[in-house]
Amino acid sequence: MATKVTPEAQPTANITDGLLISADSHVSEDHEFWWKGLPAAMRERVPQLQPRGEGAARSAGTLNNSRPGGHDPAERINEMTQDGVSAEVLYPTQGLRLFSMEDAGAQEACFELYNDWLMEYCSVAPDRLFGIACIPTYDIEKGVRELERCKKGGMIGALVWQVPHPDLPFTSEHYEPLWEAAEALGMPIHLHILTGFDYSALGLSRGSAIEAHRGSVNLKLQSATNSLMDIIFSGVLERFPRLNLVLVESEIGWIPFVLQQWDYYFERFRVARPLPLEMPPSGYFARQVYATFFNDAVGGQLLSWWGTDNCMWSTDYPHPNSSWPHSRELLERNLGHLPMDTLNKLVRENVQRLYPAISLG
Questions:
Q1: Per-residue pLDDT tens over the stretch 306-317
Q2: Cis amide prior to 11 (ω within 30 degrees)
Q3: Number of other CB atoms surrounding residue 60 within 10 Å
C-alpha cells in the first residue's frame, strides 16, 4: 500500500540537479585598473589600491584574484560550469572601496570607467552574466544619468554606498530623484558590505585582531541594520512602492529578529513616535526588500518558516568565502532539509522575479 505523504513528511531537497543562479558574485579588477584607464590628470585623485590575494591569503589557497574567470569572462563561463552555476549577478571587488572616496568628480569618473568595462565583460555571455552598476550619489542628478545610461547598456541594478557620507544620510531628501528613477526604470537599489563611510573605509588593515573581528561581524551588521532602518523608517519604500532594495553579503540570520523588534516598537509607540509608514516595517521588507546569503547555517534553518520569498543564494565567487567549486555540496549541507519548492525559490525563482532579464528556463 502506498504511503501517504503529509506536509511534514515532504521529501527534502535534492540539489544534485536543477538550475542555480548566484545573486552575488564578483569580478576581479586589477588594482591598477583605474590608474591605467583614467586620464593622467585624474589619476592622482584616485586612492592607491593594493593587490588582493597576495601573501598569506594566496599561500592559504584562498581565491580572490587567483581564478582567471574573475577578469576573463570566457574563463568564467568554464568555471561556472565546474561549479554547476548557470548565471551570476556581478559586483566589483576593488571598486567597493571607491564608495568611500570624498572626491565626487574622481569617483564619478571611476564608476563610469568600471561600468563600461563591466558592460563589455557581460556582453561575452549576456544570457549568463548580469552586471550591477556602481552609481555615484554626491551629485544625485549625475547619478540618475549614470543609472539611465547603464540601464540602456544592459545592467540590471544599481549599487550605491551602504553607509552614506555623514552629510548625506539616507533619511534626507537628497536621494529622492534616484529612488524615483530607479523605480521607474525597474533598477533595484543594492547595498553591499564594505561600501561607504564605516569601518570598511580603513581598507584591509583594521587594527588589532579583536578589532578586525569586530568589523567582520558586529560592525558589518550595524552598517546593514542602520541603513535598512533609515530607508524603511523614513518612508522611502512607502513613497516608492515599486522600488526594490537588496542587502548584499550581510547574510540573513539576523533579519527576522530585527524586523520583529522594529514591528514591536513601531506598534508600541505609533502615537508617541509617529513615522511616515502605513504598514509595520516588516511589511515593507516583505514587499520590497531582498537579501543574499551564501554560507549562513543559522539563516538556513530559519528559512523553513521565514524569508523564502525574499532571500537569494549566492556563491561570492571568487572571494575567499566562496563555495566554488563545491556550491552544491554546501547547499546540501545548509539547505538540504528544505522542500524542493522552497529551495527553487532561494536558488533561482526569487532572483528571476527581481531581475526579469534573467530569463533562464
A1: 999 999 999 999
A2: no
A3: 8
The two beta strands, 289-293 and 245-248, are: parallel
- What's the length of the chain? 361
CATH class given for the domain over 16-354: alpha beta
Give dist(CA 40, CA 302) in Å, integer: 52
What whole-number distance in Å separates Cα of residue 239 and Cα of residue 47?
Answer: 37
Instruction: Give the bridge partners for 159, in sequence order.
Output: 134, 190
Per-domain residue ranges for the chain? Answer: 16-354
Asked if residue 80 lies in contact with residue 128, where contact means CB atoms within 8 angstroms, the answer is: yes
**196, 163 in Cβ contact below 8 A?**
yes
DSSP string, 31-68: TTHHHHHS-HHHHTTSPPPPPSS-HHHHHTT--GGGSG
**In this structure, is the dihedral angle defined by the CA atoms of residues 355, 305, 223 and 282, taken in order, positive or negative?**
positive
Q: Quote the pLDDT of residue 207.
A: 73
pTM of the model as a whole: 0.93
The letter for the amino acid at 344 is N
* Phi, psi torsion values for 219, nearest 5 degrees: -70, -35
Q: Phi first, then psi: give them for residue 321, nearest 5 degrees.
A: -75, -10
Residues 360 and 21 sit within 8 Å (Cβ to Cβ): yes
